[in-house]
Amino acid sequence: MNRTTTSSIITITDLTKDFGETRALRAVNLTVTRGEVVVLLGLSGSGKSTLLRHIDGLEMPTEGDVTVLGQSVRSLRPTALRSLRGRVAMIFQQFELVPSLTVVENVLTGALARVRGPRLGLSTWPKNLKQEALTHLDRVGLLHRAYNRADQLSGGQQQRVAIARALMQNPEVLLADEPVASLDPESSDVVMNLIREIAAERGLTVVCSLHQVDLALGWSDRIVGLRHGEVVLDTPTTGLSRDRAMEIYGHVSVSTSEFAAIESELSVAGAVGAGS
Amino acid sequence: MTATAVDTHPEDARQAEVRRPRISTNKIIASILLVAMTGFAIWSLTRIDFSPHNFQLSVQNLQKTIAQMDPISFPSTPDLVYLISVTLGVVIAGTVVAAVISIPVAYLAASNTTPARWTRIIGRAIGVITRAVPDVILAMAVSLMFALGATWPGVIAIGFHSIGMISKLFADAVEQIDEGPRIAIRAAGGSKPQEFWSGVFPQVFPSWVATALHRFDINLRGSVILGYAGVGGLGYRMNLDFQRFPEGFGPALGIAIVIFLLCVVTEIIASTIRVMLLGATPTRRTLGETMMRRLRRGSRPRDVVADTLAQADLTVEKAMHRPWSRGRISTTAWAWVGVLVVIGGFVMSRLDPKQITWKYVWSTMQSFWPPSLGSYDVGTYVTAIEQTLQIAFAAALLTFVFSLIFGPLAARNVAPNRWVRNVSRVFLVIFRGVPELVLAIVLIIITGLGPEAGVLALAFGGIGLLGKLIADSFEEVNAGPEQAVRATGAGRLQVFSSATLPQGLPSLLGNTLYLLDTNIRSATVLGIVGAGGIGYYLTLAAGLTATHPIVTAIIAMVIVMVLVVEGLSNYLRRVFK
What we know:
By secondary structure, chain A is an alpha/beta fold. In chain A, 37% of the residues lie in helices and 24% in strands. Chain A has one domain: P-loop containing nucleotide triphosphate hydrolases (Rossmann fold, 3-Layer(aba) Sandwich).
């Protein structure tokens, strides 16, 4: 890859993805360097989730290529793909914990790539991994809930368990797909801060999709805007103070530029998100 | 939502024109099919001889038998304990074997776990074939491989036959899981087996246990007929007693009563395990569930606080030990009860490898191929299948009519008052409690009636099932429309016909078709005890190695028959959803 630099962790080249007749992504190019915290902004259906799923090797490109940690996902054999997924952690909008398992068992599922064969029940896990899982739970402040069933926790707590599960992978990259879209504002802050802190502690590269502009501005190093599967904005967040951003909104909202279009769509998305 | 014609807008007429949906071709075909099936059921019912004369004859038979038989008696206590333990053991062992085999079968059959299209077909095919082979026929057919009186045929037959239902319901549960957690495990680098055991199985475990327990209940009810295949236990003893005409009928009825009581007791135990182990809400579906519901009324839900660790000075080291909260103690204890029951079942089933006659194993298996019609002509089989279908359809119709009376009356939102509802519920529970095969055997043998007794027995047991399902589905309808109709000033019957019934119709249809499906399988088995139909020919052919090719041919016919009815049912369900 000619565009790959030594510090680049994710390199996406002319990525196009079709689901049947629908084109979810069109010729997306994106390079993310080590330690960067990137936010993908866009409406639902704009291709944010699909893009994230490609980075974790959960989807294969229709055209183009996705290189993560120096490996092209297309060329990987199943075992290598699984070990790559192990190095890239992902957290989801709906947390996706197994409801009937305990919290600590859910965290341990993050270590499945590190063990051989299936695991069922807490006693089937080695002691050191269990200890590690509890340490991560302690980090997210939920050690005392280790033996509750996952579905006994509130949404915000479940998302923190999901973060602990991600930590259990000892990841180099952390992907987050609308991590706070199902949470109340207070829990949202807790979760977003936690992700940012952990990213700093571990020097993680983070790609996070969001639809709230305000949240993205205060949080990320860089913002990538997606619309109808195309990258329509890619700019560093530094120097983009909230006032500046609002100014840009005000300035472009009267014009017909693409940014205005996203901005209006984003505010619609925010309203829809708040309503649902 | 449904467009109710309350619009008084001037454009009313035009809107009505726009909104009226075109009746699809599928709806027309399905309606014709439904009318044809109802017509066949009515015709079947008229063919069954319920004339006063025939009825009088059977009452005379009944009186004569009762006059001549020994008084109803029970085996001596040690005998009774032995018989019950063998029956329970065979049923438990068979059901457990089937439940375990059902996991890989369901893995193949579920669309979201199966590795490829063709593996899914294999999984589904295993389910269909195992369900179509009646357990008693299999028991008869394999009995040659084992020493006389061995319990192997019973365990094998139950284990084989039950795979069909358990794997189907389990695969359905697997298809209905939340895919999210599984994707999360895949995203973390989990392999396919890890995805299944960490992401899928914990979600479907309760349904797996519940299905196995449900199947255990069905198997116990059906186990009496295994006695006709020489499998030891209560059914065998009952069969022996019935053969001593007419004195033996008293002791045989005694065994029937024991089986009935055994069904009630084990059902209560099974419900207790289900509720205590899985924390499931009792559903009132059966006697045991009703009892559990009463017992647990007012008891607190599982304690969340007890599993939470004290936060003060909590360290990772301290958190390594999971506290023995009340919930954990109870779950662990009931899990051990479950394990002990399973082990006890295998012990009681008295399976002994020495009883396998190895030299006959291969030749017996070979004897089923190639299939052949034997000395009968095709017409004989067609008539026999027709008779089996008649029994099933006639019984379904009777059940349907009576369930439509009892079912709604047992539904909270339809019954005029609590009293009527409770009485109806109790009726349904009693109907359901009587094992229909036992009832059928008793009716057929004592009254001398053939298909008539079969129809009555199936219809009787069916009311308990269908009535209950109707009551539940009516209670589960959306209460909104009911309130809306009530708010317009409609009476009780009007609310029922305008709001409750229209919403409950799809599940009413689905449940009736399900009943028809189980009736066809039961009607096949009833042939064995003398109700006629295809089961009769199966019984004749299963006993001898020389006629085993006929068994294969008849099984193939039964599979086709079951598949056709199942296909029609699925089609109807889809169209009238």
